[in-house]
Write a structure and sequence with these properties.
21 helices, alpha/beta, 610 residues, binds 2-deoxy-2-amino glucitol-6-phosphate, 6-stranded antiparallel β-sheet, Glutamine Phosphoribosylpyrophosphate, subunit 1, domain 1, Rossmann fold, 8-stranded antiparallel β-sheet
Length: 610
């Protein structure tokens, strides 16, 4: 995820900026840069790669050591691959101003056309450069006025810091959907996307609200609302431990990324749902409605969590679009000489975009003449490049080895794909509009589960000692059982198996006794009553059963030994809040066991070997 640092004060800005970037490295990035305002001279230095490489490049440049005002950025590529040209800061106009930005500008294409027509020349593929030139276009005197005018034209999210050579020492910062915190010093202000970059200098902080814009010079801070007058925001004390500060206030990347899911899913959905036409706008698929209507089959390949997400996609695409859909382990695909037709769309799901088995499956599908699409989180990754078409997750970098937000964002994209395929066939506009509303409701469903964190931690205490567990579910909740078992296995080392609830009696039930708990997906929906029947079968063998239940379902709660409540939602979207509940359950069990959640034994974040 991108990171911002900015400084205005009496000290040299450069070491503060670079030190701040180092503190933000944990967020994941692929390029970095700084801009300094040295008494009316704006200098920008940026490059692809690590902050250490930027520092080496600057070491030899002593001219940069005088400036007392500057901005800096670590970029995680969304629009345009990770290159030096696409790195931030970006210059506005002919270099009179510089700007860094976190977030996604949805109307960047139309703004780019407008600016090009106005004579602006672009040197990057980013939406951020569009904003920099837009501010320049509006710059008639004061920087803050130009920024306000520009942001009024922007649709999407931003956290920005900007400066102009005409106003030495002055910074303008603003936020909508992407955090900005102001660190208040004695003669200085340090601005950052999170407190990790600030607490070395001060623990007095102001957190901007959405649509706040601040004018900063030294320790002088004036905050106003974008569309109204001055506002005052409370000053708070940052109480992060130094270890937590390395991960945005969380003890582990996994917990940080679990709690990022509402924002990550919003970023995944942003600009991709059309409420009026009841459809999904997945332009990256590069397939017309006519081509979609002629697809014979969707074949989904992936590994691990990505394959589990693919199984949800299979259910949703067949359920809503009536298109044949199948999921296959990527590792099997290329070795079994699969039947693949030109009318097949092969969707390769991969967070990293570098998984060897999935990449090999992509190449096999290409060789067999199928249409191939990626569903990838990492921009510019090998799978993204070799599929040539697809949908980026926009989930932000996933650092934790245990995949969490990637799964929920992958499922969100697959639901949008099911909608798009369905609307190219028999789904009506009204049904499409209902589906759009259901998908847009997902982030708030996740927020409601995250509010249960403390309760889930208490439930976890009763499952720490187990050496084995079963996860069971039906329908859309069967892939949730698989994913829940995978999460528990990989971070707590408890042997766990995900099973279709009906399958237990075909053998695995022989393993049940008082030492083997069962986690059952008992959400309201078509399979609930049968699953409660399976729960009773497990309890008859003395297994303790923890159920995921729908808010208010007293019948299910009464039938279970323990329960975790999730908000009511249709079966196809209940996958996501239910999975988040199991992510937290696994996290707390592993935490209580003292496991190495950050570095689970034997595991790698991206399996780039067969
Ligand atoms: C998930 O928690 C695991 N880390 C693993 O199963 C992962 O999902 C799998 O290796 C696929 O990775 P990818 O999505 O980057 O291709």
């Amino acid at each position: 995820m991108c990171g911002i640092v900015a400084y205005s004060g009496s000290r040299n800005a450069l070491p503060v900026l670079l030190g701040g970037l180092k503190k933000l490295e944990y967020r994941g990035y692929d390029s970095s840069g700084i801009a300094l305002n040295d008494n009316g001279q704006i200098t920008i230095r940026k490059r692809q790669g690590k902050v250490s490489e930027l520092i080496s490049m600057l070491d030899s440049d002593s001219t940069l050591e005088q400036a007392t005002c500057g901005i800096a950025h670590t970029r995680w590529a969304t629009h345009g691959p990770p290159t030096t040209e696409n790195a931030h800061p970006h210059a506005g106009g002919k270099g009179d101003l510089a700007l860094v930005h976190n977030g996604i500008i949805e109307n960047h294409r139309s703004l780019r056309e407008k600016l090009t027509a106005a004579g602006y020349v672009f040197c990057s593929e980013t939406d951020t450069e569009v904003l920099a030139h837009l501010v320049d276009l509006h710059h008639k005197g004061k920087l803050i006025d130009a920024v306000i005018s520009a942001l009024r034209e922007v649709e999407g999210t931003f956290g920005i810091a900007a400066m102009s050579r005409h106003e030495p020492g002055v910074l303008v910062v603003a936020r909508r959907g992407s955090p900005i915190v102001l660190g208040l010093g004695r003669e200085e202000t340090i601005i950052a996307s999170d407190a990790s970059a600030i607490i070395k200098h001060t623990r007095q902080a102001i957190y901007l609200d959405d649509n706040d814009i601040a004018l900063i010079q030294g320790n002088d801070v004036e905050i106003q609302a974008l569309d109204a007058g001055p506002v005052s925001r409370p000053t708070s004390q940052i109480d992060w431990s130094s270890n937590a500060a390395k991960k945005g206030g969380y003890e582990h990347y996994m917990l940080k990324e679990i709690f990022e899911q509402p924002e990550a899913i919003r970023n995944t959905l942003r600009g991709r749902l059309d409420r009026n036409r009841g459809n999904a706008l997945l332009s990256g698929l590069n397939l017309s409605p006519r081509e979609l209507s002629e697809l014979h089959r969707v074949l989904i390949v992936g590994c691990g969590t990505s394959m589990n997400a693919g199984l949800v996609g299979e259910y949703a695409i067949e359920d809503f679009a009536g298109v044949l859909a199948e999921v296959e382990q990527a590792a099997e695909f290329r070795y079994r000489n699969p039947i693949v037709k030109p009318s097949d769309l092969v969707v390769a799901i991969s967070q990293s975009g570098e998984t060897a088995d999935t990449l090999a499956a992509v190449r096999e599908a290409i060789d067999k003449g199928a249409l191939v699409s990626g569903l990838v989180n990492t921009v510019g990754s090998t799978i993204a490049r070799e599929t040539g078409r697809g949908v980026y997750l926009h989930a932000g970098p996933e650092i934790s080895v245990a995949s969490t937000k990637a799964f929920t964002c992958q499922v969100s994209v697959l639901l949008m794909m099911a909608l798009k395929f369905a609307r190219s066939r028999r789904m009506s506009r009204d049904a499409g509009c209902r589906f759009v509303e259901e998908i847009e409701a997902i982030p708030s469903l996740v927020e409601q589960v995250l509010e249960q964190n403390d309760n889930i931690a208490k439930v976890a205490e009763r499952y720490v000692e187990q050496s084995s567990a079963f996860f069971i579910g039906r329908g859309y909740l069967y892939p949730v059982a698989l994913e829940g078992a995978l999460k528990l296995k990989e971070i707590s080392y408890i042997h766990a198996e995900g099973y279709h609830a009906a399958e237990l009696k075909h053998g695995p039930i022989a393993l049940l006794d008082e030492n083997v708990p069962v986690i059952a997906l008992c959400n309201e929906g078509p399979g609930k009553d049968k699953t409660l029947g399976n729960v009773a079968e497990c309890q008859a063998r003395k297994s303790r059963v923890l159920g995921i239940v729908t808010q208010g379902d007293q019948e299910a709660i009464a039938a279970l030994d323990d329960h975790i409540v999730v908000p009511a939602s249709p079966p196809h979207t209940s996958v996501i809040p239910s999975t988040v509940a199991l992510q937290l359950l696994s996290y707390h069990i592993a935490r209580l066991k003292g496991c190495s959640i950050g570095q689970p034994r034997n595991l790698a974040k991206s399996v780039t070997v067969e």
